UniProtKB/TrEMBL annotation:
Keywords: Cell membrane, Disulfide bond, Glycoprotein, Glycosidase, GPI-anchor, Hydrolase, Lipoprotein, Membrane, Plant defense, Signal. This is glucan endo-1,3-beta-D-glucosidase. It comes from Acacia crassicarpa. One of its GO terms (cellular component) is side of membrane. Residues 358-443 form the X8 domain. Residues 1-16 form the signal peptide.
Length: 498
């Protein structure tokens, strides 16, 4: 189901007040790409105040003028050799792409290339020179304090990333990394790092649990522990970021912060990528946003913010390669969200469903026992009118627990005015913008003529049961009623959505 997004993104500046921010990358391999003005409109409607461009497109930079959006621009990889060998070329690039637009367009950083060491190694010898020449041009324009200069790295330059305390950079690149880190330190800049737990999970061949990659809660005995530091890791993201911190300290650099320039999860994939799906993309990005905006940092640096740019704003349908390459986006090219993020307590959050037509449905891959328990609660203590699920009624078919639970979950969600946290049911439900109504079964909230009305009274005890057990066992089994209410009732008091 096309579950779709609820993006947020708040207004904090990491350099200004120590708070982490969430931003979005904007790739352009998109057919029917929105024009720059439309893109800015989408960003502002979602309160996305931090973006990263993979170039310095003039039309985009003009559109960002006076928008309040902070922009990281990039020197494309194919320009690094020229800039890295000529101070004048670098100065011209800054004049054309920075000075011509600043301060109307709030350019806050320049990313020189992208994963140069691993994708364009022939440019590696001049990478640091390119950074220095760009920075010198900023100094000449008196903009070096306002605009940072760095270069994004793939996390694959880190060898043996777990345990983090034993991680180190691939020594092949030390002749580049050491002067690069000296430059970042001397200019008060930050290490740009691309972190993809999806690929770490895929390449581990089952060693990394999916829950660990998705930020899902783990029991203490399942947390990864660094035996050298006794630090506990509950997710891959933190472990990789700390591996980078330890790798820098191995080279005697201990005060360079990290900004994650790319992280995300694909919503679709080929048959050999079964975990590239909407539910996992939703879970990863929702948990990532919450984790970053909580300002918890990492186990090694719990008080240091790790601002992160989600990869990416749009699905890039023109990208070559596997299906997953074209499905990392939060939005389709027409501005419709791909799925709705599960977010609570994460700061300023707006739904990107401008029509407010959202529904709550059961996750197809949810544990049937958990679905049944949540369905029992919705049709009981939740005070949902489940009479439409009885045999012979409009929503009886399809007669299975997923379909019946979807109806009951949505009825509760609509009855609670779509309040935050009312579409979760302990992780077995999620929000969608696709109307799940079918045939004569009209879901509450769809606006259909036969939309079922809701009430706030419990159903009378009944022995009538659908095959899914909708009119559930709690009606006449007090022991189950008590234990279930304690478990599920707390759900709606929790700030956690997953």
């Amino acid at each position: 189901m096309a579950v779709l997004l609820l993006l947020l993104l708040l207004a904090a500046s990491a350099s200004a007040d120590g708070n982490a921010f969430i931003g979005a990358n904007i790739g352009t391999d998109v057919s029917n790409m929105p024009n720059p003005t439309q893109i800015v409109t989408i960003l502002k409607s979602q309160k996305i105040l931090h973006v990263r461009l993979y170039d310095a497109d003039r039309a985009m930079l003009l559109a960002f003028a006076n928008s309040g959006i902070q922009v990281t621009i990039s020197v494309p990889n194919d320009q690094i050799l020229g800039i890295g060998q000529s101070n004048a070329t670098a100065a011209n690039w800054v004049t054309r792409n920075v000075i011509a637009h600043y301060p109307a367009t709030n350019i806050t950083a320049i990313a020189v290339g992208s994963e140069v060491l691993t994708t364009l190694p022939n440019a590696a010898p001049v990478l640091v020179s390119a950074l220095k020449f760009i920075h010198s041009a900023l100094v000449a324009a008196n903009l070096d304090q306002q605009i940072k200069v760095s270069t994004p790295h793939s996390s694959s330059i880190i060898i043996d990333s777990f345990p983090p305390s034993q991680a180190f950079f691939n020594r092949t690149w030390n002749p580049v990394l050491v002067p690069l880190l000296k430059f970042l330190q001397s200019t008060n800049s930050y290490l740009m790092l691309n972190v993809y737990p999806y690929y770490d999970y895929m390449q581990s061949k089952g060693v990394i649990p999916l829950d660990y990659a998705l930020f899902r809660p783990l029991p203490p005995n399942k947390e990864a522990v660094d035996a050298n530091t006794l630090l506990h890791y509950t997710n891959v993201f933190d472990a990789v970021v700390d591996a980078a911190y330890f790798s820098m300290s191995y080279l005697n650099f201990t005060n360079i912060p990290i900004v994650v320039t790319e992280s995300g999860w694909p919503s679709r994939g080929d048959s050999n990528e079964p975990d590239a799906k909407i539910d996992n993309a939703n879970t990863y990005n929702s948990n990532l946003i919450r984790h970053v905006l909580n300002n918890t940092g990492t186990p090694k640096h719990p008080k240091i913010a790790v601002s992160t740019y989600i990869y990416e704003l749009f699905n890039e349908d023109l990208r070559p390669g596997p299906v997953s390459e074209r499905n990392w986006g939060l939005f389709y090219a027409d501005g419709a969200p791909v799925y709705t993020l599960h977010l609570t307590g994460a700061g300023a959050v707006l739904a990107n469903d401008t029509t407010n037509q959202t529904f709550c449905v059961a996750n197809n891959d949810a544990d049937p026992k958990k679905l049944q328990a949540a369905l029992d609660w919705a049709c009981g203590p939740g005070k949902v009118d489940c009479s439409s699920l009885l045999e012979g009624q409009p929503c009886y078919e399809p007669n299975n627990v997923v379909a019946h639970a979807s109806y009951a979950f949505n009825a509760y969600y609509q009855m609670m005015a779509k309040s935050t946290g009312t579409c979760d049911f302990k992780g077995v439900a999620s929000v969608t913008t696709t109307d799940p109504s079918h045939g004569s079964c009209v879901y509450p909230g769809s606006g259909g003529k036969n939309s079922t009305s809701l009430n706030n009274t419990s159903l009378a005890p009944s022995s009538s049961m659908t095959a899914s057990g909708c009119l559930s066992q709690y009606y006449y089994k007090d022991g189950f009623f008590s234990s279930f209410v304690i478990t599920i009732g707390l759900l709606h008091l929790s700030a956690l959505v997953l």
